[in-house]
Design a protein that fits this description.
Elements (H helix, E strand, L loop, with lengths): L1 E6 L3 H12 L4 E5 L24 H14 L3 E4 L2 E7 L2 E6 L4 E9 L3 E3 L15 E2 L2 H4 L7 E5 L3 H11 L4 E6 L8 H10 L2 E5 L1 E7 L6 E6 L5 E4 L3 E4 L3 E3 L29 E3 L11 H24 L2
Parallel strand pairs: 1-2, 1-6, 2-3, 6-17, 8-15, 9-10, 9-15, 10-11
Antiparallel strand pairs: 4-5, 5-6, 7-16, 12-13, 13-14
Helix pairs in contact: 1-2, 1-6, 4-5
Length: about 300
């Protein structure tokens, strides 16, 4: 029996683990990928207080090392269901392992949103990617498409230019949603142009991406872009399928949590990108983790005092 099981070892999950451990709670982190979550594939972070410019990988490594120096248990686990049994919960993984715990803190994050157009699934990892830092090196000296108009899209486009890649940014809206600094950095590269007010109709090719069919939303004119690579950054969807039966998510699938990070089910907390919130950043995820762990400790103390 664990006191706390944390699903997801992103910045929120790792912070929650540290705070729970400091409260003398038997704590375990379950992660189905690498510690750090999306942070690990972030090229550059410059808004985490006190660190200046640093790679997401470096922050991830420092946070994970911190948890291991404290001796916090860490296991691989792809969680498929969380069962509420009142004072205890069961956490079940895809390989059939069941863990018992008093508290579950969910920091499972999000996964990239797809366009849902022909060819996208077939050519995934064959020219289509959702991670520039992972796959950008394959396109050195080439021209690629970046789909999206927010900060993530523009920042990833800038990163691609550092690898001698030229970029066309395509956005369905006729303006960019990224902040002015990100756009200025993109313009300063001299390697990025824009197609605003366009949509992707299909990704084309057999064994690898050959070109992309796009359409101007105003004129309805279609054209084909000859690009060997396309990077998609149009938002994310929460990874919450394993709590569907608990009734703790909204219509978009995000977990609804209050200021104490509590969900509608006692003993289950939500943190980080997976919860319904206004700002999804590393710093807000770490804050969520600390708050959740503190209130988890109070909840467990109350449980133990019950007859």
């Amino acid at each position: 029996m664990h006191d706390v099981i944390i699903i997801g070892a992103g910045p929120g999950g790792m912070t929650a683990a540290i705070y729970a451990h400091r409260a003398n709670l038997k704590t375990m982190m379950l992660e189905k990928a690498a510690p750090g979550g999306k942070m690990i594939s972030t090229w550059e972070v410059e808004n985490y207080t006190g660190l200046g410019k640093v790679s997401g990988f470096e922050i991830s490594e420092k946070m994970f090392n911190h948890t291991q120096e404290l001796g916090i248990e860490y296991q691989y686990g792809d969680v498929v269901e969380v069962i509420d049994e009142g004072k205890t919960k069961k956490v079940i993984t895809a390989d059939g392992v069941t863990y018992d715990t008093r508290v579950v803190i969910i920091g499972s994050g999000t996964e990239p949103r797809k366009l849902g157009v022909p060819g996208e699934d077939r050519l995934s990892s064959k020219g289509i990617s959702w991670c520039a830092i992972c796959d950008g090196a394959f396109f050195k000296g080439k021209h690629v498409l970046v789909v999206g108009g927010g900060n993530s899209a523009i920042e990833e486009a800038v990163f691609l230019t550092t690898m001698d890649v030229t970029v066309t940014v395509l956005n369905i809206l006729d303006t960019l949603q990224a902040d002015k600094k990100a756009i200025a950095q993109a313009d300063a590269t001299g390697k990025i142009d824009y197609l605003l007010g366009y949509e992707v109709l299909s990704f084309n090719g057999e064994s690898k991406l050959k070109n992309v069919t796009i359409r101007n939303l105003k004129t309805k004119e279609e054209q084909v872009l000859d690009v060997p690579g396309a990077f998609i950054f149009i938002g994310a969807v929460p990874e919450t399928s394993f709590v569907e039966k608990l009734g703790i998510t909204n219509n978009q699938g995000f977990i609804e949590a209050n200021a104490r990070m509590e969900t509608r089910v006692k003993g289950i907390f939500g943190i980080g990108d997976v919860i319904d919130k206004e700002l999804r950043q590393i710093v807000t995820a770490t804050s969520d983790g600390a708050i959740a762990a503190q209130n988890a400790s109070k909840y467990i103390e109350a449980l133990k005092s019950q007859p």
